[in-house]
């Protein structure tokens, strides 16, 4: 990469991409036409400046790497506790927990059952645990929604996703028809 003065810039190492900075703007002359020292604003410095003065950065993962974690799980009757769950029903859950925005987003799909309820529970594999988040029931086989939650719940899912599970209920299986651990 070339700096404002035409020479290669690299923070570390040699060659293309070895710690190079990407200028967003360079300033070379005063309005009178006299030369001024070149000033390069990099993406990193612009983001740090924006954070320092309190500009909202939305879901910018660059600031602290804390924007949500996403988990995918299969939902099956064999995982239900206490069982038995529905051996013929299946589903999927995509769960994104974000402790920065205090949200948990869930995309659910189901096949082979008529759901009556869906939840996220706290409980390790093989353990029936308490409901921590009621979910939109996938009445037509699908639901997708983001929920505002306490920071502790989002952070707990990120810290230990295997301690949480998604399950879907139907009339024949009021304690749960299909289940999947969020963390695998």
Automatic annotation (TrEMBL):
Residues 19-29 have a biased composition (Polar residues). Residues 69-184 form the CHRD domain. Signal peptide: none annotated. Residues 1-11 have a biased composition (Basic residues). Residues 1-29 are annotated as: Disordered. This is CHRD domain-containing protein. It comes from Sphingomonas oligophenolica. The lineage of its organism: Bacteria, Pseudomonadati, Pseudomonadota, Alphaproteobacteria, Sphingomonadales.
């Amino acid at each position: 990469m070339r700096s404002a003065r035409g020479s290669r810039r690299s923070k570390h190492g040699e060659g293309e991409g070895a710690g190079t900075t990407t200028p967003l703007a360079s300033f070379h002359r005063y309005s009178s036409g006299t030369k001024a020292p070149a000033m390069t604003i990099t993406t990193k410095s612009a983001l740090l400046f924006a954070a320092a003065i309190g500009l909202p950065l939305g879901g910018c993962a660059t600031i602290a790497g804390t924007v949500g974690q996403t988990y995918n799980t299969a939902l099956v009757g064999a995982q239900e506790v206490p069982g038995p769950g529905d051996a013929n029903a299946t589903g999927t859950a995509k769960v994104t927990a974000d402790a920065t925005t205090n949200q948990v987003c869930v995309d659910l799909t189901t096949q082979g059952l008529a759901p009556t309820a869906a939840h996220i529970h706290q409980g390790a594999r093989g353990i029936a645990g308490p409901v921590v988040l009621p979910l939109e029931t996938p009445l037509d086989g699908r639901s997708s929604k983001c929920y505002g939650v306490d920071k502790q719940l989002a952070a707990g899912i990120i810290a230990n996703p295997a301690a949480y599970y998604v399950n879907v209920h139907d009339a024949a299986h009021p304690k749960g028809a299909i289940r999947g651990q969020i963390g695998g």
